[in-house]
């Protein structure tokens, strides 16, 4: 089968993916930061054709984004970084008939105090958009993931911050959780410093294979030095052995069409083949105007060995095997109630959409503001050559 990258183009960072055998479908979620609706969910039958089916955060009262502020500061080598708060690096999982999306809502108050509000939402019917209200749990960090044992126990892994977010000192820590209530059932324990060693160890995911627990992490920031690394242990609590072949994915020092590769997931399809989804950027005249996108690449994972990840290519082919699940999504219909996005906490009553006409009530806050919700309604650009047309008009309301 022939594949094309990116599989989710245009602002689709930090992908997390699962294959649900009972539905013969892949489901993928991305970060959304300070945009509403949040945490977009995509579905595919063949890892190539994807449909946006909804958002895990889709009600104004579900998650507050008013504290998802934008900051401006320099990092190493005085490289400017303009980060936004909000919904960081979600993980999607399915267990015993329930879908879980676990995430961090990174918020900053009016005097600059930051808070990592970690939570998860659930749904039994992922197509319905009926996601629960958040269940919060205490964790001083970001990028949480869930691992479910066969005996029903659940463990949360995350990037624990050993200082302010800007300092980037972080390790992977874990605790057992009561998945019904969010209450901890164990202490929070450090399980890995990462391959680089306490520098940007983020986005952890645990997989069980060949009686090993494999711990995947993203490291090196999100620029040229971004990478994926891996470790393993016979016990979920460690100690974890760091792979000598690390990093198992990076574009640093290479001339690649897809660069800054890192933060992602490994999964096995219905035919037993292994894959990786990861973030990356496509350069265009020295820039990457589409931002971080989601790419797909093959993985070879021998028994009792480390995974070998091919660097993502814009086009590649792979033997389809039986391809029992390789069919287009013709029978699938997007269930999202709106394709539009807003910034932070919008008052949806300020926006009226009738056919091809959009009416909105202006606010004093504009797009240059580092906080608040301007009168903004938009859609993601998905291709370098997208064209958009709009006719502007002004209406006056007496009162």
UniProtKB/TrEMBL annotation:
CDD domains: GH43_XynB-like. Keywords: Glycosidase, Hydrolase. One of its GO terms (biological process) is carbohydrate metabolic process. It comes from the Eukaryota. The keyword Cytoplasm does not apply. Pfam families: Glyco_hydro_43 (PF04616). This is Beta-xylosidase C-terminal Concanavalin A-like domain-containing protein. The active site is at 14 (proton acceptor), 202 (proton donor). The keyword Protein biosynthesis does not apply. Belongs to the glycosyl hydrolase 43 family. One of its GO terms (molecular function) is hydrolase activity, hydrolyzing O-glycosyl compounds. The record marks 143 as: Important for catalytic activity, responsible for pKa modulation of the active site Glu and correct orientation of both the proton donor and substrate.
């Amino acid at each position: 089968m022939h594949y094309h990258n990116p599989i989710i183009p245009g602002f689709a960072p930090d992908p997390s993916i699962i294959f649900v055998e009972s539905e013969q479908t892949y489901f993928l979620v991305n970060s959304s930061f300070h945009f509403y609706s949040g945490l977009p969910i995509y579905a595919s039958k063949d890892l190539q054709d994807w449909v946006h089916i909804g958002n895990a955060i889709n009600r104004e009262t579900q998650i507050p984004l008013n504290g998802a502020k934008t900051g401006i500061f320099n990092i190493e080598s005085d490289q400017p970084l303009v980060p936004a708060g909000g919904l960081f690096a979600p993980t999607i999982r399915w267990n015993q008939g329930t879908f879980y999306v676990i995430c961090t809502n990174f918020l900053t108050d009016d005097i600059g105090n930051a808070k990592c509000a970690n939570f998860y939402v659930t749904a039994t019917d992922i197509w319905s958009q009926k996601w629960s209200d958040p269940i919060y749990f205490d964790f001083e960090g970001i990028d949480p993931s869930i691992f479910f044992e066969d005996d029903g126990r659940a463990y949360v892994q995350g990037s624990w911050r050993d200082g302010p977010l800007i300092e980037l000192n972080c390790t992977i820590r874990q605790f057992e959780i009561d998945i019904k209530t969010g209450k901890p059932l164990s202490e929070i324990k450090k399980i890995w410093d990462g391959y680089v060693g306490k520098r940007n160890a983020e986005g952890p995911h645990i997989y069980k294979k060949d009686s090993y627990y494999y711990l995947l992490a993203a490291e090196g920031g999100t620029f040229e030095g971004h990478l994926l690394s891996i470790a393993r242990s016979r016990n979920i609590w460690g100690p974890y052995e760091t792979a000598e072949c690390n990093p198992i994915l990076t574009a640093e020092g290479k001339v690649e069409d897809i660069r800054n590769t890192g933060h992602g997931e490994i999964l096995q399809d219905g035919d037993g083949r292994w894959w990786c989804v990861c973030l990356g950027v496509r350069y265009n005249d020295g820039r990457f105007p589409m931002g971080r996108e989601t790419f797909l690449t093959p993985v070879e994972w021998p028994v009792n060995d480390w995974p070998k990840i091919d660097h993502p290519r814009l086009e590649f082919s792979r033997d389809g095997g039986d391809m029992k699940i390789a069919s287009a999504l013709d029978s699938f219909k997007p269930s999202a109630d709106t394709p539009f996005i807003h910034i932070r906490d919008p008052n949806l009553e300020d926006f009226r959409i009738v056919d091809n006409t959009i009416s909105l009530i202006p606010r004093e806050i504009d797009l240059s503001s580092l906080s608040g919700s301007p009168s903004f309604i938009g859609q993601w650009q998905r291709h370098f050559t997208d064209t958009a047309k709009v006719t502007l008009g002004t209406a006056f309301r007496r009162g």
